[in-house]
Structure formats: structure tokens, C-alpha cells
Specification:
eight-stranded mixed β-sheet; 35% helix; 21% strand; 2 domains; TIM Barrel; OTAase-like; alpha/beta; Urease, subunit C, domain 1; Metal_Hydrolase; Metal-dep_hydrolase_composite
């Protein structure tokens, strides 16, 4: 096979950037070092070579927070919109994602079979919620709203351990790679409160037990302090958002090795869309405004304490393709640029249990690479990383 050498650039090692070359053969990295040779050369002079990036919390089937628009969208249109959403995400350098609600097995298989271009993905399919919880779309008028259920997207609102056992087994049958639950209320749901915990210990314990039996992990949408604690002490792998994280919650996360996926962009995306004139209810806007400051403070608390953090954005609530803005927010609120890049590469790969294949530029790993003009760490700090991406490679092949 042809050996392609990316020569003359600087290589992100996971902690720093150093001069180096990367050699790719087929879909694998075969060497990293100085002065390497290959059959074909890609001149990386003046560029940083990054591993393929991760976003651990996206929603490809969503294209914004406008409920009125979604109610007037034909059922099948989001599947076609997802094609553009996936491509926009891939083009900014994100080659692997975790879709946290919405994409069914058909969407994932379309990418896996090469029918459409997009990041490789792990899918949650739908979010498991209690009645009146963050994924219960009942409205005060008595109607149920989006997303509509269909053969690939089963109903996941359930109460009590035995109902939840059935739901988890159903999601596994439908192709879930990860189970997502809501252990608190949220911003975008009409009747839930982000400060209230959802599900009891015995319910989450059952969910985790069934997920473990299927060989998959559990991620938990968790904003309230109590909702975070209940999820962590019962074995979820990651806390999503973590807005009202307490000192006790930090201690439990450290003790259990639980990850935080902060999604700092999420409330900002809601507020930005409202400012641009999108029809977003006053209830949702009030909640989004209420969580912003606390969200950043909780991120700082977790980072300073040494909680494991992986990058995720909640893209779909807002535009796809702007995912790298999350890295700049992580730096703004306490991470170094190298730590932010680690969160979207090595750390994210570990969270998704893909560290043997991805997350680093190392021999034997899959050849996902991102060529960034200039100093990638400075671009992260300045918020210009997306604009500096010059080429993206997935499995050794450049993507358009």
C-alpha cells in the first residue's frame, strides 16, 4: 500500500505540540517521528497535525431549538437535514461523535456503509425519561410534540425498575451503542425543572445493570445536584451538562471515575437563537438564562478538582459545524489550550472506549488526522480553530 508522509509540521502529542512527521499506510498510522519517508508526501510545513477530534454529545437529527419550525417540518425531512449536519461536523475536524438522542440505526448505518459522509458514531437512539421528565414531550394543551416516535425510535418514557428494564432491552434491540437517561429536568423540556432530580436509586441501578449486561455504558443528562449524585452513585459513565454540580458531587465523581461532558455551548446556543429572532418560549428562555453562570462555575469546580472531562457540545440545539467553539469556552473558563485539545482527542476516545483505535497520533491507530494551519493551541485560545482547518482525513482518506 502507498505510504503517505505528512512532513515538516508539528504534531500534537496529547499534551504538547512538537516537530514531527506522521506516516499513514492504508487506514492506519504506521510511524510518527522526525525525518520520515513515504511514497507520497503531504507538506505540513507551518501546520499542526491533530488526531481526529471527538464531540461526545451531538444531535444530528435536530437543526435548532425552534419548536414552531419543528412542528411544521415534514416527518422525513430531518433525515435529509442530518446529511448536511453530519458533513458540517466532519469538515470542522470532528471524525467521531456520540449522538445523544435522535439518530436511529439507519442513520448510523448510512455512515458505516459509506452511503453518506459523516463522523463515525455511537448512538443513544432516544433518551430514557420518567413521566414528566426531560424527554416527556407532553404539553399543557394535552398534545405531544417532537420528536415523533417511529419504528427506529421507540418510546422511552417509563417509571419503575421493571418498566425501565424493558425500555433498556428495547433500545439495545434497536441498535443503541450507549444508553442515555435524564436524571434531572432540563432547559428544553416544557414541564421539567433543571434543579429537580429525576429517577430514584433503584431505577438508575436497574438501567445500569441492564446496560452493563449488554456491554454498553450509560450517559446521564444531569443538571441538578441531586440528579448528578443519584446517577454517579449508581454507576453511570458520564454526566452531561453538570450545571448545578456540588462539592459532594465532585467527590463522588472522583471516587467513581465518572466523566463530565460539560456542553458549555448549550445554553448559549439557545440564547443566541432567541436573540436572532427564533421562536423560543419564555419558559425555556428563563431556564437558559438561569443556568448560564452556574454552568461555567461548575465546570471550573470540576476541572480544578481533577474530574475527567471530555468535549461535547449539544450541537443540534444550535448549529452544527460550530462545535470547536466549545474548546474556546473550556479555555475561557480555566483549561489550557492543550487540555482542551486533550479533552476532544485522547480523553474523549477513552470515554467512548475507543482509545485502542483513536484519540492519538500513534502507530497502529486509525488514520484520522486534522491539518491545522498555524499553531492549533493559539487558535483554540483565539476561537479561530475552525477557520484554520485545512484538511481532514478519516481512515486515511481526505474528506470533502
Amino acid at each position: 500500500m502507498t505510504r503517505i508522509v505528512f512532513s515538516g509540521g508539528r504534531v500534537f502529542t496529547g499534551r504538547t505540540t512538537e516537530p514531527g512527521d506522521v506516516v499513514v499506510e492504508g487506514d492506519r498510522i504506521v510511524d510518527v517521528g522526525i525525518g520520515l519517508d513515504g511514497d507520497t508526501a503531504v507538506d505540513a510545513t507551518g501546520h499542526t497535525i491533530l488526531p481526529g477530534l471527538f464531540d461526545c454529545h451531538v444531535h444530528f437529527m435536530f437543526s435548532g431549538a425552534d419548536l414552531v419550525r419543528s412542528l411544521n417540518t415534514p416527518f422525513s425531512l430531518p433525515f435529509y437535514e442530518a446529511i448536511g449536519n453530519m458533513k458540517a461536523t466532519l469538515q470542522c475536524g470532528i471524525t467521531t461523535v456520540r449522538d445523544a438522542l435522535g439518530a436511529d440505526l439507519g442513520v448510523a448505518e448510512a455512515v458505516r456503509r459509506g452511503l453518506v459522509q459523516g463522523p463515525r458514531m455511537q448512538i443513544a437512539i432516544n433518551m430514557v425519561s420518567q413521566t414528566g421528565g426531560h424527554n416527556d414531550d407532553w404539553m399543557q394543551c394535552g398534545a405531544h410534540v417532537s420528536p415523533p416516535l417511529h419504528p427506529g425510535l421507540p418510546d422511552t418514557v417509563a417509571d419503575g425498575p421493571e418498566e425501565l428494564r424493558k425500555v433498556i432491552r428495547t433500545l439495545v434491540r434497536h441498535g443503541a451503542d450507549i444508553i442515555k437517561i435524564a436524571s434531572s429536568g432540563g432547559v428544553m423540556s416544557p414541564r421539567s425543572n433543571p434543579r429537580h432530580a429525576h429517577f430514584r436509586d433503584e431505577e438508575i441501578a436497574m438501567i445500569v445493570q441492564e446496560a452493563n449486561a449488554a456491554g454498553i455504558a450509560v450517559m446521564s443528562h444531569a443538571m441538578s445536584g441531586d440528579g448528578i449524585l443519584t446517577a454517579v452513585r449508581n454507576g453511570v459513565r458520564s454526566i452531561e451538562h453538570g450545571v448545578f454540580l456540588t462539592d459532594e458531587g465532585v467527590e463522588e465523581m472522583l471516587k467513581n471515575g465518572t466523566w463530565l461532558v460539560p456542553t458549555l455551548m448549550a445554553p448559549r446556543m439557545v440564547l443566541d437563537q432567541a436573540a436572532a429572532g427564533m421562536a423560543i418560549s419564555d419558559v425555556i428562555l428563563e431556564k437558559a438564562n438561569a443556568v448560564v453562570t452556574q454552568h461555567f462555575q461548575s465546570f471550573q469546580k470540576a476541572h480544578q478538582a481533577g474530574v475527567k472531562i471530555a468535549m461535547g457540545t449539544d450541537s443540534g440545539v444550535g448549529p452544527h459545524g460550530d462545535n470547536l467553539n466549545e474548546l474556546s469556552l473550556m479555555v475561557e473558563y480555566g483549561m489550557s489550550p492543550a487540555e482542551a485539545l486533550h479533552a476532544t482527542t485522547t480523553s474523549a476516545a477513552e470515554l467512548l472506549r475507543l482509545g485502542d483505535e483513536l484519540g492519538e497520533l500513534a502507530p497502529g491507530k486509525l488514520a484520522d488526522l486534522v491539518l491545522v494551519e498555524g499553531d492549533a493551541e493559539q487558535h483554540v485560545k483565539a476561537g479561530t480553530l475552525k477557520q484554520a482547518v485545512r484538511a481532514v482525513y478519516q481512515n486515511g482518506v481526505t474528506v470533502g
